[in-house]
Amino acid sequence: MPDFAEQGVLVFFGENAPAELHEFSIIHTPDVQTRAPQVGDTITLADNTYNVLAVGSVASDNLLNLGHLDLKANGLTEPEMPGDVNVEAVSLPVVKIGDRLIVISQP
Amino acid sequence: MGEYKSVVIAAGKGGWGGPLTITPTDDRPYIYSVTGGGIHPVAARIAELTGGTPFDGFKSSVPFDKIAVAVIDCGGTARVGVYPMKKVLTVDIHATSPAGPLAMFITPELFVSGVKPDDIKEK
Question: Which CATH number goes with the domain that contains A59?
Fold first, then answer.
């Protein structure tokens, strides 16, 4: 399995995702799902904060239906793929059990 | 022993790959829907035409070697490559092209995208 994190990609799925998706995903318990991240929101993950630069067309359905998020630290302001949520091109943290991902909307 | 028929699935508008011929067998009977909200209409249509068994991957799982075809609603990064990597025929309802960490596994012999129910034809 190629290393997603090395390529600046973190994949999240809700806990009912099938087993074959677990080996490269961060399995989490989705909480308070009203909408997907939008451009201008910030995401905090394991005490780091990132600015949302672009959001693909199916990112919202992914998150609301499946708890699924493709977080890409690529610095791109246009989504390459419909599921993408892009943030700055920085190194993403090694996520540990108990860490939280929080989306903060900006007024 | 089941009675199975074949379908041919072509890429839809803006899609990539294929066409794929899907023929379930007694060894590989499952139309595996790895999509939100139950069995996707594309998976339901394939099951209806072929006689395969629709199966919701978010409810429980089956071994890869029992899957006739995986139907996904992948936005282009992860699921899009997982099933081709396991040599499972894969239909993405979104119009994606090979990309992401698993792009090397996505070939037109294994993968077709942008598929709507109307892109599925009886053979």
Answer: 2.40.33.40
**Beta-carbon contacts of residue B58 (< 8 Å; ≥ 6 apart):** A16, A17, A18, A66, B34, B35, B36
- Residue B101 touches partner A, C-beta closer than 8 Å: yes
A11, A65, A66 ranked by CB distance to B77: nearest: A11
Q: ∠ CA B65-B71-B75 to the nearest 5 degrees?
A: 125
Place of tokens 């995702």: A17
Q: Which of A21, A25, A59 sits opposite B75 (nearest CB)?
A: A59
ipTM greater than 0.90:
no
Quote the number of domains for chain A.
1
The token pair at B39 is 């069995």
pLDDT tens for each residue of B66-120: 999 999 998 888 888 999 999 999 999 999 999 888 999 999 999 999 999 999 9
B90 secondary structure, DSSP code: E
Domain range spanning residue A50? 5-104
Angstrom distance (rounded) from CA B6 to CA A39: 44
Q: Each residue of A86-102: pLDDT tens digit?
A: 999 999 988 999 999 99
Question: B83 contacts in A (CB within 8 Å)?
Answer: 20
pTM of the predicted model, to two decimals?
Answer: 0.90
- Our CA-based measurement puts residue A14 at a distance from the nearest CA of chain B, in whole angstroms, of 10
Whether residues B57 and A3 touch (CB distance < 8 A) is answered with: no
